[in-house]
Give the backbone structure.
Amino acid sequence: MRRRSWITAGLFGTASFAVSSAGSTVAHAAGGGDPGTATPSTVTADPAVAGARHHPEPATDARWVHTWTAMPQLTEPSNMPPAPFTQSGGVLVDSTLRQTVHVSLGGAQVRLRLSNVFGGAPLPVTSVFVALPQDGRAGVDRIQEGTSQQVTFQGRKSVTVPVGQEAVSEPLELAVQPDSNLTVTMYLATGQASQDITSHPGSRTTSYLLAGDHGQDAALPGATTVEHWYFLSGVEVTAPGSERATVVLGDSLTDGRGSTTNGNDRWPDQLFDRLRANPGTAGVAVLNQGAGGNRVLNDGLGPSAVSRFDRDVLGPSGVTSVIVFEGINDIGTAGATSQAQQAVTGQLIAAYGEMITKAHDRGLKAYGATLTPFGGNGYDDPGGTREAARQAVNDWIRTSGRFDAVVDLDRAARDPQQPRRLNPAFDVGDHLHMNPAGYAALAGAFPVELFA
């Protein structure tokens, strides 16, 4: 029998996506295909050869491990690049896009994953550069001089990512420090010929848009700022065989609504800080695969958790465990009747069981997190049917024995005097999302021993 531990410490197109971590360029099936079926096709590169030096694969005592992820989704109209970067005939035509990401693990080599999973046309990227941001800061447009290096794809400077697929760059020899920021700058000469593009809207990190080719410029004065990531879905580093990753599957609470812009103080960030401070878990990356508005059962803002599980949990390299903290939006968007809430409760429990089985089949530990309170929020109906469903789901998470461990985030976040509500010290005001102190409480509920 699988051993289970009990922890009492302490959001918001259906298809499955298989992501390979081997090789330099891969392509994956996406929405519209047969769920669970990957149909490979070739990622095409610009004919101009980069002339860069050979990019070796990692040494035999090292392997690729994801150090950062962002869940790809179809960009909503309100999250598109502002005019003039979105036009009737295309997006980011003759435009430079500079973004920073916060990595967990460090390594001697790095490679990027560019996503066109939800694009309505091929994604032609003319050039990509990786650099260190000025003073190591997140969300800045300036890079440290002398650190910029060009990224290549099969020896070429440009890459065209087919519709519904992903491109993986060649290894780049760049010493990346753990718990640091990385700048990625892309230039698109012709732009993407569709207003269906792939992004992660809830970046909580400032990105920069500027007309023209400025990929190697030290700064982007006059650039337009947005708080979204576009086209970038993963960063990997070479790491010793002992280093590994845990994936957090979640919604806006995991995505960090209420956290500090450019502060990297979402609860998965703060969990990584705790792991890094402990010698036994310093080599564990925390991969945030949360997205605002996401649901377990049905597509909404992004594909459902059950449909993206293969891509977002089983796909990233070096993963040894998954934390499932999602379901509030399913309860909150189901009807406020006993019948509807009983149905969604049963469906959530079945979905959790399916995800646990998939994780175990791949040798991953599956950790369950109880759903935090939403009393006083719009989800909280007067008859209390949604609260009853939350309690029923949490009771199953705590007592079923299916998860390898249970972390009681409900207990960590709730008001001791009114358990149906968030602790007022953590509440951003909507009685659902939390401030950095609340996210610190969630991160603190996880015993580091789970990841040792």
About this structure: The chain has two domains: 5-13+242-451, 44-234. Residues 1-54 have pLDDT under 50 and may be disordered. Helices lie at 252-255, 267-276, 305-314, 328-333, 338-361, 385-399, 409-413, 436-444. Residues 90 and 194 are 5 Å apart (CA to CA).
